[in-house]
Amino acid sequence: MLGQRDILLHLVGLMEEYKIPYLLTGSFAVSYYGFPRATHDIDFVVEIHLAEKSNILKLLQRLGPGFDYDEKLVVKAIESFRQFAVFHFDTGIKVDFWIRKPGEFERNKFKRSRIIKIGNKHIAAVSAEDLILTKLVWCKQIRSERHLRDCVGIIKTQQKQLDRKYLKLWAKKLRVVEFLAEVKESDYSGY
Q1: pTM assigned to the model
Q2: Which residue from 70, 32, 77 is spatially nearest to 53, judged by alpha carbons?
């Protein structure tokens, strides 16, 4: 039976084969940079344009039995820079593919990506700073204690490695300065 890590590695291999630029994000990235947390999903940001939709559709067809997705929703997600999901019913794992939106911050995520190692595979992941900023932007829309807790864990774990100048600059540009101050001053146990 496939596990979450097996599915992650399988997908990364296929994205590399089909030359689809990707970043691992979400709970896997949070667990790598901060405090681990259990989840039944895998999140990727993918850079794909409508003209290249056949690549992602071919990749999805190669996933194998047990995986389910809606091809129309995939195309719609690419057209509207949204997200689509793939489900693996045997394990209950959901894989979210977030289409990279236009804009400087979103482009920066790919320029500033980090290579992390999971198993024997090198995987492109969102940087710790961009993961924090993304979660704070989501909190600006709908406050989430889980996202704030994730940010606290990343900041506490990555203290010396964080590019604080970049965080401060982009917190201002993204209008999340108050959230950044809140998580920098927070005690993890207080959430």
Answers
A1: 0.91
A2: 77
